[in-house]
Amino acid sequence: MIRHALKLVWSRKRGSMLLIGEIFIAFLVLFTVIAMSVIYGQRYFQPLGFDYQNIYCVGMNEANWTQEWDQEMHNNLVSMVRELRTLPEVEAVSISQPLPFGMAWWTSSLEYNKKEIEINATRLSLEGQDLYKLELVDGRWFSEDDLTLEWEPIIVNQAAAVELFGTESPVGKRLDGDDDKRIVGVVREFRHRGQFSKPSPSVIYFTPLEVKTDESIRQLAVRVAPGTPASMEQTLTSVVQHHMGAEVTVTINSLDNVRKNGLKSVLVGIVIAALIGGFLLIMVVLGLIGVFWQSVTRRTEEIGLRRALGSPRTSVYKQIITEIILLTTIGMALGILLILQIPLVGMFPILSWGNVIPSLLVSMLIMVGLAVLSGMYPAWMASRIQPAAALHYE
Amino acid sequence: MFLNYLKIAWAVFNRRRFFTFVNLFGITFTLAILMAGVAMLDHVFGPTPPEVNHDRTLLVMRVNLWLENEDGSVSSSTSGLAGLNLLQETLYDLPGAETAAITKSAWRVQSYVGSKKISSFLKYTDQYFWDAIRFEFLEGRPYTMDEVTNADHVCVINDATREKYFGDSPAAGRDIEIDGVKYRVIGVVENVPFVRQVSFSDIYMPLTLDPEYNKTKRLAGMCTGIVVAQNKSKFPMIREEFLHRIEQIDLSEYGNFNHIAAIPETLLEQASRLFFGSGGKGTKFHTEKVIGFFVFVMVMFMILPAMNMVNLNVSRIMERASEIGIRKSFGAPSTTLVGQFIVENLLLTLAGGILGILVAYGILGFISFTGWIPYATFTLNWRIYSLAILMTLFFGLVSGVYPAWKMSRMKPVDALRGGIS
After folding, report:
1. Do A247 and B110 touch (CB under 8 A)?
2. Counting beta carbons within 10 angstroms of the beta carbon of residue A360, is it exposed (0 to 12), middle (13 to 18) or buried (19 or more)?
3. CB contact under 8 A, A298 and B310
């Protein structure tokens, strides 16, 4: 049957070639959309490693604040944090820079044994672990004693530990470089750049609230007890203004809202790409229906003859569908050959075997489905051809 | 003759409505998406009001500062928007320039009207800004040089801000309060789309009101310089003088750097430098690469619909076998037939093009309506229409030539018999 179909396709190779070309390009379009969804889908379901519920981001700003962050302002901040901690609803207060799910991020690099890696960096204070409920898998969290150390304590996530140290335990290791950085702990994961970000190495620098640096602190993260009413926002505002000055503009956002806004902007992109891809595919399906329909009309003679010689309707139907599937397979095979080059050559680092293979499988399934769908009506038409129709021709 | 083609084309379109529909659907949709895309690009890069001098405007946006050691390695580098001091030292009175202005990037401020919180963008500019960017004033006037020098508490607001603060009543002469400080509104201008970063803001204020104004000396900061040239041919002259001037800056006053790179450039040139340049340190432009990239994307996008149409048209040859046969036996040359089929195909694509424009209107209207992009009012203008016509012609030719050639090659005998299979 397949052999026969192959012969029929071959005998009309010029017409078939154009069709195969169209299927080839349609398959590439389909793959692009599916691969994008698979990549983002896989990332979405990877654990974030931290809890973003019940966290408020408190921003403070004032038009007349100068660039310089002076001791007085810092003292005000410290007393403000002290008061915040006495509130029964507040569970943790910490610097968190940059804020998770934000548009801004900070990358730094770490080097050990001449091996350097790019790493997502963030600053947290003493209560950072309670703030985000980070899970320690090795070593310890920062402690108050760290304030007096001669060296700089850092905490990395598991991905960074594996990349830098392999199977060794990284705790206590000193990193290359003049600034004496030592790893004191390892958290399972801290993917603060959001659910659609690539799981990657991450480092936490210790930034105690109590010690003044040159950098101004204009943002804090506050964890409140579950079920705290929204009126908490007003309480926070008044505490901030009480200590920092009444003219300070306080902006309060729940971290969950920030996360949802970030999700929306990525989703809009995916939805637009999917809509465009979907429209292109609808067009291809309609076009294929037209082409197959026309080809059935043209072959009335041949099909009529087969029917006259006793071929049942189902067999004619099957023949047309087989031919269509065959054409689609050839077009797809070309596409697959091309797509497999991407992870082989490493052209786009974002496409790896882990997402190319499932995307290919899904795209193939959909492509064959679409081809069969577009062949159904023409095949049904072919199976209705009366043997007598064939006799018109000669 | 042509009328005859039209009649035949109409008959063909009517014969198999499904095929006509599929073809039209493909063209319409493809052109609509392309035009919506182009309209958005035009929205960002094109000369839309109030930036009417856009064609002869150069911007100084990005500046790179770095410290190069003697062995050629770079030990520290800063990159960002230009600083106020850099612009003050280099931008004014460039030969060939009509006017030059300095503005700071718009940033968010909060204010209260009664108990309602209003969040707006605030932009600090000098007085020349109003010459460089030709706003239409709905009320009042821009601030003057005296008001800028004296740091008077005045501001110009846009239409949307006027509505938020004052409803429908006029605003000029009234006060608004931002971060606890009162400012007098002296003018109201039309809204500018958010993506036009050079001119966009809700509230405009004299540069001297900026709390950071001349507090610290900075080469990199938050500012943008706008240079309006007398005409386009003065661009090289302006760039040369600018490059000469930044070489004169004593970098040691500003920190640990010994190299600086910045150049007046058009928006498109800046985009080309960001995408294809060597990290912004070079001053070479790659405009043709950016345009080439967009053309490539457009052509790639049109390939699938075009192939779809070719396939459909090729498979329809047989339908017209008897017509072709008769015309050929009566001596019609192939070229005439090719011409006829291409005209037919162009008619169909043109119809699709017109429908595409309508759909593009719908898409853009919808995007403007949802307010995803603040103050975006996407419109189609003659630039986009002419591009659409060009795309339609391209589409019509690409999808029409091969089937027409194939049709014309049919042997009269085969054609009369009912076509070759």
Report:
1. no
2. buried
3. no
Assign A142 a pLDDT band (cuts: 50, 70, 90): very high
Cβ(B104)–Cβ(B238) under 8 Å? no
Reply yes or no on whether the pLDDT at B384 is more than 90: no
Are the Cβ atoms of A283 and B180 closer than 8 angstroms? no
CA atoms of B196 and B262, how far apart (whole Å): 21
CA dihedral (B207, B212, B215, B217) positive or negative = negative
**Residue B378 pLDDT more than 50?**
yes
Helix (H, G, I), strand (E, B) or coil at B168: coil
**Tens of pLDDT, residues A318-330:** 888 998 899 999 9
The residue count for chain B: 421
For residue A121, the one-letter residue type is A
Q: How far is CA B120 from the centre of its chain?
A: 24
C-alpha span between B235 and B182 (Å, rounded): 41
Give, in order, the Cα–Cα distances in Å from A7 to each of A12, A102, A312: 9, 59, 21
- β-pair partners for B66: B77, B259
Q: Which residue on chain A is closest to B363 by alpha carbon? A: A272
CB atoms within 10 A of CB B212: 15
pLDDT tens per residue, range B18-51? 888 888 888 898 888 888 888 888 888 888 778 8
Q: Tokens 């080809």 identify what position?
A: A295
Indicate yes or no: CB of A249 within 8 angstroms of CB of B315: no
Three-class DSSP category at B86 = helix
Residue B421 has pLDDT above 50, yes or no: no
* Per-residue pLDDT at B205: 93
Only one residue has tokens 């064609």, namely: B55
Nearest by CB to B311, which of A287, A302, A393? A287
Digit-coded pLDDT (tens) for A189-199: 999 888 888 88
Cis check: omega of the bond before B50, within 30 degrees of 0: yes
Test B307 with A62 for CB contact under 8 angstroms: no
CB contact under 8 A, A247 and B421: no
* Residue in the block written with tokens 């620098």: A205
| Token reading at B174 | 């009234």
Q: Sort out which chain B residues have CB atoms less than 8 A from A295's CB and list them.
A: 315
Those residues with Cβ within 8 angstroms of residue A360's Cβ, 6 or more apart along the chain or in another chain: A31, A336, A339
CB A94 within 8 A of CB A127: yes
Determine if the pTM surpasses 0.95.
no
Q: Across A211-215, B244-248, B374-378, which has the greatest mean pLDDT?
A: B244-248
- Give pLDDT, residue B318: 67
* Residue B256 in contact with partner chain A when CB distance is under 8 A: no
Q: What is the DSSP letter of B265?
A: B
Closest residue to A249, CB basis, from B110, B307, B418: B110
Task: List the alpha helices (DSSP H) in chain A.
Answer: 2-11, 13-44, 71-86, 128-132, 158-165, 232-244, 255-298, 300-308, 313-345, 353-383, 387-391
> Which amino acid, one-letter code, is at B418?
G
Q: Is B397 on the interface with A (CB under 8 A)?
A: no
CB contact under 8 A, B19 and A18: no
Please check whether residue B27 touches A, CB under 8 A.
no
The three-point CA angle A215-A217-A218 to 5° equals 130
Say whether A66 and B212 touch across the interface (CB within 8 A): yes
Numbered residues of chain A with Cβ closer than 8 Å to any chain B Cβ: 12, 15, 18-19, 21-22, 25-26, 29, 61-67, 247, 249, 251, 268, 276, 279-280, 283-284, 286-287, 289-291, 293-295, 297-299, 302, 393
Residues ≥6 apart with Cβ < 8 Å to B46: B54, B381, B383
Answer whether B225's CB lies under 8 Å from B82's CB.
yes
| Burial class of residue B68 in the structure, from the number of CB atoms within 10 Å of its CB (0-12 exposed, 13-18 middle, 19+ buried) | middle
